[in-house]
Amino acid sequence: MERSSKFYIDGKWVEPVSKNTAELIDPATESVYATFAMGGAEDIDRAVKAARRAFSTYSKTTIEERIELLQKIHAAFLKREADISSTVTQEVGMPISVSSGFLLDWCKLHTKETIEILRNYSFVEKLGTTTIYKEPIGVVGMITPWNFPIGQIFTKILPALATGCTMVLKPSQLTPLDAIIAAEILDEAGVPPGVFNLVNGDGRVVGEAISQHPDIDMVSFTGSTRAGIQIAKSAADTIKRVVNELGGKSANILLEDADFNVAVENAVGNCFFLNGQACDAGTRLLVPRSRLEEATNIAVEVANGYVSGPPSDPETTLGPVMNANQFKSVQAYIQSGIDQGAKLVAGGVGRPDGIDAGYFVRPTIFSDVKSDTKIYREEIFGPVLTISAYEDLEDAARMANDTVYGLAAHLTGRDMDKVRQLSRELRAGSVFVNSPDFDPKAPFGGYRQSGNGRECGEHGFTEFLEIKAVVGHG
Questions:
Q1: Which helix (H) or strand (E) holds 366?
Q2: Which of 245, 379, 455, 463 is catalytic?
Q3: pTM score
Q4: Which of 119, 163, 275, 464 is deepest in the core (most CB within 10 A)?
Q5: 245 part of the active site
């Protein structure tokens, strides 16, 4: 891309201060396909200064002006759909059926939902003799992941724009190109100079500069728990707000009365979504002990039906994992499951048959997995599903909660009284019941080491606002 050597700062495409570059490797072929600029602390400082200047005026725009801007962003997005899906498919190895479907729908639905929330949101409330003002927090540093790249970018920029904030975005250094498209969309839509700024680079340099910058009021981060901890530490000296959406090791619980043919197929699909690289995936399938063998047999049949191949092929249902390090990590986890005595029933180490290049992982199922194994307890981030048996619903809740994470949980069953009761016992930020349709109103975020704060829907606005109480004003 012609703009991969530049950053978007203060409404213009500018040459970086830093002259460092990096290569992008296609995860499906292991070949280099692009080079892009890597920024430094000086680039971030330029972007922050632009965002700070813009905040003085953008924070005072009206709701009507922001709605009009979001509508223009939506219109500009629609013109770039094909570019986005093809770019993300090459960057991440996301099957084209997902990048041209769910990914685009995610961005469009969240844009429409943000507009609707903004139409009705109360930025002023009266409580007794006090007037409560909800005011934009200021300049937001955004650090987004590679697994769902432009989707996560939109998840952050939309509420920031809606609430009157300005921002500096650092996308993952593994997926900078779709972020460039996002910047082009915002530029075409007429986002005022300085409101949105883009600086590419790695977490160690650019991410650290964002976390430590005294003129950034908030950091919104999505990524690993390890990185989230470091960001929180780096941000502590400036007492800025940090919203972390981190990793997970989510349980997927099937009740005795579930339709196992449908439920297990959905469970495998949920685990393998985004090539097994979704933070809220139900990677631990928990089933009644009496139905362990039945669930295992269905899961094996479903897993063996997945098609690995070029992500650009509409017939492909499982693409590669992100890079060589991720491939090695997932292979090590699979081997550890074997070494620790878990029952390997599908897949295993190595690439799928007939594939000699690319970071492809065999769709893998382990059954009768014990809670002391690494594959049960740690986030793998690859197409690896573990199946374990529970004795009763109390045991299922205990097993689901037996983790340092708390991002999500999944439940399937016909007895809704039991489903509701169990959902209240689960220590997770999201509980998905009976494989529901996507709901853009639902807040998303985790308990414990899965993070803090919430994204999406009306609750997502809250993170970008400060609360001012004017007492006696009433």
A1: strand 364-367
A2: 245
A3: 0.96
A4: 275
A5: yes
